[in-house]
Design a protein that fits this description.
Distance between the termini: 75 Å
Number of strands: 4
Strand content: 5-15%
Number of helices: 5
């Protein structure tokens, strides 16, 4: 049972769900924690490393989260070099590992 108040959601205690024989219900209603969400994103990106992963797909991996929440989970992964993106907006794809830098050759006239 979930009760909703103004801007808040209340979930019964884990012990209640255990007593009622519904352990999985508690986890489903509470949702995954941040580390589990990050791990799910990285796993999906790794599994699709040959073709890349669109943000839409990552939103399907974590359907309980809004698009902006998925984007905010990707930011620390990108900063750490765990994942990187190629392209922008809807055409952008996510790949595992740090982004490879392009070295621009410059001519110094000599």
């Amino acid at each position: 049972m979930i009760e909703r108040g103004p801007g808040k959601t209340y979930i019964l205690a884990r012990k209640y769900y255990e007593f009622a024989g519904q352990r999985g219900t508690y986890t489903r209603k509470k949702g995954l924690d941040r580390d589990q969400n990050l791990a799910s994103l990285v796993k999906h990106i790794e599994e699709n490393k040959s073709r890349g992963t669109r943000l839409e797909e990552l939103c399907q991996v974590l359907p309980a989260l809004a698009r902006t929440q998925v984007q905010s989970l990707l930011k620390p992964l990108k900063r750490r070099g765990t994942v990187h993106s190629r392209g922008q907006k809807k055409a952008g794809l996510w790949f595992p590992g740090p982004a490879l830098m392009r070295i621009e050759e410059t001519k110094d006239g000599v």
